[in-house]
């Protein structure tokens, strides 16, 4: 079953076509990776799916409901959750406290209103399960500012997971990470159940081929190719882009 359907999506900035006639579907439980050279339109596409940007034309359906005109917060309520490239953690709070903020609001003032959070076993247990899944439980009382960048990226993914997404959008989750840190993100994605569909923009090809069940290739704002990792790896047009033109 399609959880997301994109139909003839176009985006124009000041007369310049950034996306043109992009159409594809995402299956329930699928791990779909979106790749392409710099300037291909990947982030613009993500911004439109997440509701941060309006499309110039085209339609978007989520679980058979049209969401083309819905703002980002309404899409989030439907289960579309996005993790951004830029970290949005509160550095002076602990790992566990940041995770709990997912339940109690996104500001420290709201968190402080919830004086008895330690006694709320249900939310602490849920946060703990997610932190254990990400191998962050042993660091739960550490201030976030003391964590490595890779651990902070994992925590941000954990916080996205705690929002109970139906569709999780990850924008360059391994950007700036070491190979070992990237592998930890791969493990975390593999641990997610099929109840969570994962759509990822990435340029790290090792990461892409470890995670993807299917890959879409954007090129100059259009969908150049779509297929399994093996199909994309052996696609002559994709090879030309990445080997001939040095796309990242």
Remind me, CATH topology of the largest domain?
Rossmann fold
Main β-sheet, spatial strand arrangement? 6-7-8-3-9-10
Give the ordered list of helices and strands.
Answer: EEEHEEHEHHHHEHEHEEHH
Quick one: biggest sheet? 6 strands, mixed
Q: Give the terminus-to-terminus CA distance.
A: 32 Å
Low-pLDDT runs of 5+ residues are none
In the CATH hierarchy, what is the class of the largest domain? Alpha Beta
Oligomeric state of shown chains: single chain
CATH H-tier superfamily of the largest domain: P-loop containing nucleotide triphosphate hydrolases
**Helix content estimate:** 25-40%
Task: Look at the structure and give the mean pLDDT.
Answer: 91
Describe this structure in a few short sentences.
With 248 residues, this protein is α/β, with parallel strands linked by helices. It contains ten helices and ten strands.
Characteristics:
about 35% helix; 10 strands; about 25% strand; Rossmann fold; globular; 2 domains; alpha/beta; about 250 residues; six-stranded mixed sheet; four-stranded antiparallel sheet
Describe the structure.
The protein is α/β, with parallel strands linked by helices and 248 residues long. The protein folds into two domains: 1-79 and 165-248, P-loop containing nucleotide triphosphate hydrolases (Rossmann fold), CATH 3.40.50; 88-164, no CATH class. The protein contains ten helices and ten strands. The longest helix is centred in the middle third of the chain and has 13 residues, at 121-133. The protein is globular and about 55 Å long. The two termini are 32 Å apart.
